[in-house]
């Protein structure tokens, strides 16, 4: 199912040492932690899914996982630095082809999307396979996403060219969470921590909705006014909660899988 990205037409040359900055090192560690915890929680699919983050201080470059490596194998140093033309600036290997065409065009066309996490995580993807709106505003965790989601109805097969990448980027609009019908989900955010927090709670919200739907009994949506107010309450502390969430998983991994930092 996965495809390696072909070699670019011409190699890129890095003319500065910005990739050695402490902020870049920290981004590598944070992103690697997300890969490892996503693997633990079953939010990945083989070698096919991908997380990316715009390199701090370099809006023309992004970090992404290399083709052929499972999430549980990712380390800080294994992540690639790529430009928007398909050149690998730093790291061994190449990105998976759809990772490049989706993430490069997304970061290029949506500067607010510093982090972009794409998965086929089972519960959220199951909802993306259904007719109609995927999330029902019936559970408290779902209300974190009230007014922040979008459904991309136009599944076109694998994203193996810039045109499809541009279409996906354009479809996102102002949303942070995109249910890609017949495919999976995309979560974008201004930081790695916020993208991770949304990805985690999106799958939890989808899981409890799926369990409730399996009873065969009707769901009881929250009234719109309360849903909106609850969303606003959640958003007040979301950034700090997300930061602490990421710090917690790094502490867990530092004890149990310390190689993720290398």
Overview of the molecule:
This protein has 262 residues and is α+β, with helices and mostly antiparallel strands. It has one domain (18-254): Class II aldolase/adducin N-terminal domain (L-fuculose-1-phosphate Aldolase, 3-Layer(aba) Sandwich). It is built from 7 helices and 8 strands. An 8-stranded mixed sheet has the order 4-3-2-1-5-8-7-6, with helices on both faces. A hairpin with a 6-residue loop joins β1 and β2 (61-64). The chain is globular. It comes from Neoroseomonas alkaliterrae. Belongs to the aldolase class II family. Pfam families: Aldolase_II. One of its GO terms (molecular function) is actin filament binding.
Quick take:
Helices cover 40% and strands 13% of the residues.
Order of helices and strands: HEEEEHEHEHEEHHH
Mean pLDDT: 92
What's the shape?
A: globular
CATH topology: L-fuculose-1-phosphate Aldolase
Overall domain count: 1
Radius of gyration: 18 Å
Query: Which CATH architecture?
Result: 3-Layer(aba) Sandwich
CATH superfamily: Class II aldolase/adducin N-terminal domain
Number of helices: 7
Biggest β-sheet strands, sense, barrel: 8 strands, mixed
Compute the number of strand runs. 8
| Backbone structural class | alpha+beta
Share of helical residues: 40-55%
